Protein 1
Amino acid sequence: MFESVPPRAYGGTERVVSYLTEELVARGHSVTLFASGDSETRAHLVPAAPRSLRLEGGAQDALALHMGMLLDAYARAREFDVIHCHTDYIGLPFTPRSKVPTVLTLHGRLDIPEVHPVYRAFPDVALVSISDAQRHPLAGVRWAATVHHGLPPDLYRFHPGGGKHLLFLGRISPEKRPDIAIRVAIRAGVPLRIAAKVDKVDQPYFERVVRPMLDHPLVEWLGEVDDGEKERLLGEAIALMFPIDWPEPFGMVMIESLACGTPVIARRRGSVPEVIVDGHTGFLCETEDEMVAAVARVAEIPRRSCRATFEAHFTAGRMAEGYLRVYGREADRALRGKTRSLAVREIVPVVGTA
Amino acid sequence: MFESVPPRAYGGTERVVSYLTEELVARGHSVTLFASGDSETRAHLVPAAPRSLRLEGGAQDALALHMGMLLDAYARAREFDVIHCHTDYIGLPFTPRSKVPTVLTLHGRLDIPEVHPVYRAFPDVALVSISDAQRHPLAGVRWAATVHHGLPPDLYRFHPGGGKHLLFLGRISPEKRPDIAIRVAIRAGVPLRIAAKVDKVDQPYFERVVRPMLDHPLVEWLGEVDDGEKERLLGEAIALMFPIDWPEPFGMVMIESLACGTPVIARRRGSVPEVIVDGHTGFLCETEDEMVAAVARVAEIPRRSCRATFEAHFTAGRMAEGYLRVYGREADRALRGKTRSLAVREIVPVVGTA
């Protein structure tokens, strides 16, 4: 609820919930979406706040608004076959009273010890990870599936040509390691475009580390860009540079890049090895030397392979199929264990980040 | 859990929970306290975090820690006759599954609309307000009682003499109106001591509004003071200045002042008219003119009346009796409504602010 569905500004969770919701509706499922009232959807929208909290600014207690949304959703639980929750752990205490199964997609990192006992306390909830890597810190819970994020296939078009520059895209922060991207590009002698926003919290890092590196003639700083610009930049790139140094649960920009046909030069962290196949859709590296060598070889990778991998594994359709399998299993499980209605017909994504 | 019980630094809720817990233990009740592990209590302490979160600094997810604490408390619910919760609304979703009644003391202001539906959704929970005034914004819930805060009777000694200065004590912030206290003291020609901390968020207000007023020879700025210093300053004051302009749910400093025998010159906001009796333990004013007149008359108020009012209405013993009545009624109610164990013998304060 911090953003509308889909989000007007940055909002990873809301974007994925939107893609999933519209795909489920397109497949004929009846979906009720609990989200901020300025959301746009073909599902039945239940406005849990008049406007997204980031726009609103006036909401003094976001947690209470999310609690209210969960109360509404669970009060109506009997209308649904499955409740699909995207609000981290805050919905868990509502689940034991409900006969309707809850599927909970975890969108954040899980290496924060204080959240572990909370997830473990609700073994009836089907947890979905957005990558296998995301699960590592959290054992002893009921993992129902990994469902990788997906994009509508036409959101980013295939760009067969490619261009001459490397691209760093997203957010400037220490763990994204833009400094590595810059050093590698300079050593490889290939131009690098940087299209990234700088959050307030990362401003000191940007000033201290990144800005002094932007003077080099091979480095072009573009600042924050919109979605159309993003596609153009991806389409014109010979490779996306993704030298992250944190266990990112799922890096959306990797599949955006593949959708455009652009291979990814990445470090083996978090979800990266599940998304990029070394030598096929990019290169998995560790050191800067390896990344410089990868830049030299990246033209060997057919752009069509990248797009084909995207279409086979990372579309909204593939994501919806993954979730429908989980919904079906959980509805069956509830049917066997408790008294339950019939098939998966109605799904309720509850959106928001606590 | 943001502070230990009792708190080492500022922590209103934790301080009250400590006074209540120790008083209940002293009266022979068996009490289990869920709180941070560095708490000091004669009750059974269940450490819900090794150290208070304000000291710890390392806890990345305070909400998850509070959820974990609530999970533990409600998992053990059958051991207790009553669960007394101090964590605002976050414990509510745990209550419907429990046969043990929950008493929830609301410590904050309630004029935030998004919290209302959450409280209304759990009519089985006995809500306790810390003043009648606090209830106004929140109708349609089950108010079980108002229980004013209380202090151990020997925490602040009676100071029969009083002194020659007025005192502003607490925190500098716009809604506490230190500017009014200063103007009134100057117009009345009586020295004013200001013993107050300035939080980071209030620093601009302090610099812009308050600091320029501190130069006057009648005004003495003392900054933040410790508990011992606080008692000395209260004991030496002819009156406490409390010209607040917000609906403070309960102003602890008023009863600290009465305990020392010091009358209070206050504005009629929030809990003030429930604590101060006009002409008997201080003066209730609206305008600065009225406050200037009150300063001139305040010597008429016998300091012994203030202490007597404190002893009759605002001790930890009186607070404990108020809560014991609520525990008893709720245990009876649970006994009639559901299957329940016997008497109020074991009470679990769960502490923390969400």
Protein 2
Amino acid sequence: MAASKAERPAMAEEGLPAGKAAEVRASFARQGLMCAIGAAITELGPGRCALELPFSEGVSQQHGFFHGGIVGALADTAGGYAALTLLPVGSEVLTLEYKINFLRPAAGRRLLAEGAVLRAGRSVLVTRVDVFVLEEGQRHACAALQQSIMRAGAAPG
Amino acid sequence: MAASKAERPAMAEEGLPAGKAAEVRASFARQGLMCAIGAAITELGPGRCALELPFSEGVSQQHGFFHGGIVGALADTAGGYAALTLLPVGSEVLTLEYKINFLRPAAGRRLLAEGAVLRAGRSVLVTRVDVFVLEEGQRHACAALQQSIMRAGAAPG
Amino acid sequence: MAASKAERPAMAEEGLPAGKAAEVRASFARQGLMCAIGAAITELGPGRCALELPFSEGVSQQHGFFHGGIVGALADTAGGYAALTLLPVGSEVLTLEYKINFLRPAAGRRLLAEGAVLRAGRSVLVTRVDVFVLEEGQRHACAALQQSIMRAGAAPG
Amino acid sequence: MAASKAERPAMAEEGLPAGKAAEVRASFARQGLMCAIGAAITELGPGRCALELPFSEGVSQQHGFFHGGIVGALADTAGGYAALTLLPVGSEVLTLEYKINFLRPAAGRRLLAEGAVLRAGRSVLVTRVDVFVLEEGQRHACAALQQSIMRAGAAPG
């Protein structure tokens, strides 16, 4: 199911401390789910992470759109890595919770999730993620997520 | 990534109107995501749906646990079909939103999502889903979801 | 507990259809809770509503900050009226659900909730509301809400 | 707006460590909001807290029902104190976030919120709260909340 490297969009990154982008890329590469579905990081910055996902049978629901659960998974991941960019190299994060509202059916060829940190507290970071579906050159907002991320070491369980 | 039929658990169903279980099974089989990851329906009843998912590389996050986004996807799907059981044969449903709290890392060999309808309104149904991870014969609650499902025809967009 | 009219901030409104601002004001005035705590509408526009609330003993929690539940109530109300501005005069709305993340303690003299519609679907509108606390001329983001609003007539129960 | 002590329901409590019930009551009494609206604790136990609120003009919305924001505030408070019962005497808690689904209009004379801890982690506790409205001897589920509570000292900001 994985897209080839050649098909993957290039990644933009700026303003991050040394080693942070490489650390995020390495962590992302260990996420079996993101690899299996062919997701890629397209942008990283301080408190920001964008991911892109091509449509395939393996991420669809019964009407041939992106499955809402995959929309949530991509957005959850974008928010988590947006948070990780703000923490010292070597940090780990855990999702405490997320909430996603669906704005329209995710019918299109690519899905784009843009995560941004709203507030970086001492142990919890709050993010918002906007998800867009791309179809015929148009970009439509299709979901909105709000999420709590915990710095590991202050683990939830 | 799909589990063979022989490995899938048998499905229990009771109390449903004629044709409803077959309709839910057919809809589930058209969900490319659920097929790709090897999820199966293990229980259906009026306002109830349980799903099971074996662990595999393709549903993992960076520490080798079930990816939180997949936990959300499985729970979202269980809640949606729990809602569908209460609607007339031929109905469609859409997820308006869901919110998931993670209770502990989903570290184990199987994931079980049990969805139940809290309230079936005229156009919106509210569900709760409990997710458990199974490891060495033990079952641990690992996530809790609360969700709004809309009867299609009264579509969100 | 109500603030006198003289203390209330003036309301800005523009771009709304005839009668809409008056309708929103009349509905708001019938909300016993908003009157009891002294909340006021400070801005109305197409898909937008801002509310302001002065601190008082009656809206406090045990540390003397704004109670989180009141922060949620003010944000819920701002989101609901933001949605109502987009519907024909005579429409009614119901909150289906909301989710609020607290970004910092709401310690200050005034609370400001700014609601905006993210997506206006046929029967459901999705909003986001940002809440700020004002203290010594500074404005700090203290909460973020995401909400589903249903047009009445398509009622949830 | 406060109900007199004579009108308040008696509180049931059992299974709590020495001093815990008194501590919760003292904290609740310092919540200006809960006092102003006349809310009372009706039950406390390990991981459980129930609150009751009589209807009054000051907690109403534009149709004369309980305001959804007050339903959320009461549920938020019940969940927070349910969490506090599980922590050592002297602990403080903060709400990180909550999400509430409305199941039917809260039309009735009394509101009852029953909070229970789903999972008590090291720094975060997850709760669920069920809210009922009482009318003419009948009790109807009217809202469902899911919430994250943080032990203070591990503060969100």
